[in-house]
Design brief:
The protein is of the alpha/beta class. The chain has three domains: 7-269, 3-Layer(aba) Sandwich (Rossmann fold); 273-414, no CATH class; 431-477, no CATH class. The protein contains 16 helices and 15 strands. The chain has helices at residues 42-60, 76-84, 89-106, 122-134, 164-178, 217-228, 243-258, 289-294, 299-308, 319-343, 351-357, 364-371, 376-389, 397-414, 431-445, 449-461, and strands at 7-10, 15-18, 27-31, 65-69, 138-140, 146-148, 191-196, 213-215, 232-239, 262-269, 272-274, 277-278, 315-316, 464-468, 473-477. The chain has a four-stranded parallel beta sheet, sandwiched between helices. A four-stranded antiparallel beta sheet has the order 5-6-7-8. It has a three-stranded mixed beta sheet with strand order 12-11-13, covered by helices on one side. Bound molecules: adenosine monophosphate and zinc ion. The site of adenosine monophosphate has 18 residues, from helix 1 and strand 9. Residues 32, 34-35, 43-44, 46-47, 72, 238-239, 241-242, 269, 271-272, 278-280 line the site of adenosine monophosphate (AMP).
Length: 478
């Protein structure tokens, strides 16, 4: 129906691959989910939104999906912060899981079909450790911790393409940073499968054949994948920081415990950055959806910014980009309003309706871009060239109906809901004025005051005032 099928860059193959379901029916994929010890930040959501676009493109292309995403509800951070908050781990992580679901809803993320939690899958994890021990891939240390023996798996490193020495150094630095108590292992590269109980864990421990303790972080994904997707499935995804060690360790645990293939393809999302650094909780430079809403930006405007960069390129977050998102969404909304006036009563098709009946024409070029490694910026460019060329008032009713359907098809692929209301006080800014204002802002950001002042003067002469806020600006007619 839609006539294009998805090609995606595969981290494992280091090349593009056609993405087609192994079983010929359903594309089965897994995404590493959030660690629920606070609100997810918009960096986390960049990854979840990119995975959502992936799913939408697959489904709109005519292939059903089975989407599994876990909730990490036990690890060092959840335990530490639940204790600080004076709550049980369960109550604490449940609260943050609800907040996560709420934010996902506002950002228009399709809920995964299965969303397993780590604590609820402890028996699965213990079974996997037992299998690994039986097969000679794991050993128990004197303190009751269990480690994966990296030297027992000759394919270790095939995803991250690191050399043996780098792997050992990498594992050593990760171990030093996150697990300084792991002095009982045989080799620095070995990673923990079961952590023996420590006083600082409080009441958060479980019984196992090796004594009380809790699972290592990498294990939960392997165990839950085996339960819900089996030994062989289509695709695995996460942020680029998970390639090593997390995904490398998942491969080792899964392949060694089952002898199966694990994920056929791997999709990794580059980071959302702030001022050239990764947005992360530990660096204290993060924004949540709540923060942006407090500054007057909608969740859809945030989503528009997050989808707007190519998922394999780092994306620098600025308030200016949120302003630009607002203007782009308003432009689409105005266009849709024009179509509606042309068409009279017309409904907005749902994702399910689009899966079964839609055709991207006249946005075939945008659709082809999405199928080419999810090239969202290219697709958005194509959408705007159609909107610029085909003014609603010049279209026949049939043409307008096609554009209506096609526009909703592409917006659905991006997970963008076209605003129903054109913003209050919304101002149509001519493209050349916008371009001047953008140049002035860039000059200002680059501290080139002379150029910035000259461009402000030019804008004023053209009848436009610029009002600057800390991180953005507004254009107003004089
Ligand atoms: P976490 O809650 O830390 O387990 O992370 C959830 C997801 O967000 C993982 O796929 C991470 O790789 C991803 N992630 C973390 N920080 C960023 C960032 N700044 N930009 C994009 N993705 C991120
Ligand atoms: Zn994982």
């Amino acid at each position: 129906m839609t006539g294009v099928s998805l090609r995606l860059y595969d981290t494992l193959a280091r090349d593009s691959r056609d993405i087609a379901p192994l079983d010929g029916e359903t594309l089965r994929f897994y995404c590493c989910g959030p660690t629920v010890y606070g609100p997810a930040h918009i960096g986390n959501f960049r990854t979840f939104v990119a995975q959502d676009v992936f799913r939408r493109v697959v489904e709109l292309g005519g292939t059903p999906t089975l989407h599994v995403r876990n909730i990490t509800d036990v690890d060092d951070k959840t335990i530490r912060d639940s204790q600080k908050a004076g709550q049980t781990l369960d109550a604490f992580t449940r609260g943050w899981t609800e907040k996560f679901h709420h934010d996902c809803g506002e950002l228009g993320l399709l809920p995964p079909h299965i969303e397993p939690g780590a604590v609820a899958h402890l028996p699965h994890q213990i079974r996997m450790i037992e299998k690994l021990m039986e097969r000679g891939h794991a050993y128990a240390a004197p303190d009751g911790s269990v480690y994966f023996k990296v030297s027992s798996y000759s394919d270790y490193g095939r995803l991250s393409h690191l050399e043996d020495r780098e792997l050992r150094l990498g594992a050593a630095s990760v171990a030093t940073a996150t697990d300084s108590d792991e002095y009982t292992k045989d080799s620095l590269a070995d990673f923990v499968l079961w952590k023996s109980r420590k006083p600082e864990d409080g009441e958060n421990y479980w019984a196992s054949p090796w004594g009380d303790g809790r699972p290592g972080w990498h294990l939960e994904c392997s165990a839950m994948i085996l339960e819900y997707l089996g030994e062989d499935f289509d695709l695995h995804s996460g942020g680029v920081d998970l390639v090593f060690p997390h995904h490398e360790n998942e491969i080792a645990q899964s392949c060694c415990s089952t002898g199966g293939h694990f994920a056929r393809h791997w999709m990794h999302v580059a980071h959302l950055m702030v001022d050239g650094g990764k947005m992360s909780k530990s660096l204290g430079n993060l924004y949540t959806l709540e923060d942006l809403k407090a500054r007057g930006f909608s969740a859809m405007e945030t989503r528009y910014v997050l989808v707007g960069g190519h998922y394999r390129q780092p994306l620098n977050f600025t308030f200016h980009s949120l302003d630009a998102a607002r203007q782009a969404l308003q432009k689409i909304a105005r266009y849709a309003k024009g179509l509606k006036e042309r068409l009279g009563e017309v409904s907005v098709p749902t994702h399910e309706e689009l899966i079964n009946s839609a055709d991207p024409a006249p946005f075939a070029a945008a659709w082809a871009r999405l199928n080419d490694d999810l090239n969202v910026p290219g697709a958005i460019g194509d959408v705007f060239s159609v909107l610029n060329q085909q003014k609603p008032s010049t279209l026949s009713e049939e043409e307008a109906a096609n554009v209506w359907r096609g526009l909703h098809f592409i917006c659905d692929a991006l997970g963008i809901v076209i605003p129903a209301v054109i913003g209050e006080g919304d101002i149509e800014v001519p493209a050349e004025i916008q371009a001047l204002a953008d140049r002035r802002w860039d000059a200002k950001m680059g501290r080139d005051w002379a150029t910035s002042d000259a461009l402000r003067k030019e804008l004023e002469d053209a009848g436009w005032l610029v009002k600057d806020a800390k991180d953005s600006y507004q254009l107003l007619p004089k």
